[in-house]
Amino acid sequence: MSHDQRRILTGITTSGTPHLGNYVGAIRPAIAASRRADAESFYFLADYHALIKTGDPARVQQSTLEIAASWLACGLDPDTVHFYRQSDIPEIPELTWFLTCVTAKGLLNRAHAYKAAVDQNSAAGEDADAGITAGLYMYPVLMAADILIFNAHEVPVGRDQIQHIEMARDIGQRFNHLYGGDYFTLPEARIEENVATLPGTDGRKMSKSYDNTIPLWLPAKDLRKAILGIVTDSRAPGEAKDPDTSNIFAIYQAFADADETAAMRRAFADGIAWGEAKQALFERVDAELAPMRERYDALVAEPERIEKLLLDGARRVREIGVPLLRRLRNAVGIRPLDEIHGSARGEASRDRVTSSGSALPQLKSYREADGKFYFKLEAADGALLLQSRAFDAPKDAGRLSAALVEAGDDATAIAALLSQCVPDAASVLPTEAIIAALARLKADKLAKKTQKN
Description:
Blueprint lengths: L5 E8 L6 H15 L4 E8 H7 L3 H17 L8 E4 L5 H10 L4 H5 L2 H12 L10 H15 L5 E3 L5 H18 L8 E3 L29 H9 L18 H9 L2 H12 L4 H27 L2 H30 L13 H6 L10 E6 L5 E6 L5 E4 L6 H14 L3 H11 L9 H22 L1
Helix pairs in contact: 2-7, 3-12, 4-7, 4-13, 7-8, 9-12, 10-12, 15-16, 15-17
Subunit structure: Homodimer.
Subcellular location: Cytoplasm
EC number: 6.1.1.2
């Protein structure tokens, strides 16, 4: 990621069939954002979140296929964006626990979904927490981990999700404060100003939980039938109608341009019949969806193709998430025991000291259980400054680590090397501290060479 790019992240829970509300509120604006020259986009299928909402394993799997195919049919280009499944990123649940340990219970008590469930129980005379799982209660923390693991700058959401982004900011800011570092970028919610929460067929928010959705990929005949079933009031043809309280108008406005919307507003004032308004809505929605519907049908018929795309996407985003998790582990104290700060024993400790007796930074190379090769740069006090990505061969890791030391205090050369060592994550590293550490290592190397000669 270049320094002038902004990371944009969004996801959809895989607990149901995509509907018009998902398309207008999440899919369409997110894909439009992915085409920005200054954007690096992340799209994920939130299958962990789905477990909060459904206990049907087959539904979760089928929904994952349908939502993935929907994004691709709507124009997502997996070659230019990060497209992955939440459950393929093990760093997300690990980060969720780190964040859970710094999140105030009072913050979670104020979450809209939890409060609504409590209010519903109270109104029914039940215990306040009857039927409420810890998963529902902890939903905001998992969502914060989804966002913070990749240090997203913007999250396109519906208006009802703004609170979750604000909570992610609060949680990330608290972690940064408690552990004394700029570990997380604080995200911002981004909403299209002309798009409100889409109403369903009964006038309430379009939601699977209300069973009032209009599925996104209905055949044209069924789409028309669903739109004809939208609830309206009893005003007769010729009688002026209020567009600002109409479900028909709200959905139409979400698909129409400014001129079309203005024309429909005039038609409402002139007393358009509800049947005529519904027909106009169907024609406008179908005109946008029909070309994509054909692509969707073809994609759903090839699940193995989508699976390959998702696994490839997971591999790429983990190159961003793994280095950050290593840094966070160090921050919270989950560290190897042979790296206890202040140890004065052993060869490793002696290697930290220069001939003048002052402590040196360290550049360590090692092999993990996955068979891959890594290196890391530590400050003189043992703080982790840089954790490399995985390398297939030790010579590749060694070449880059040696080049970093040789670069010394050359900031331009170091920036170029960091983009090879930790692609996409270089922008969140403590660059000034890395340059200072490498400069000391190079100076010590030159001093030893001079003494030898």
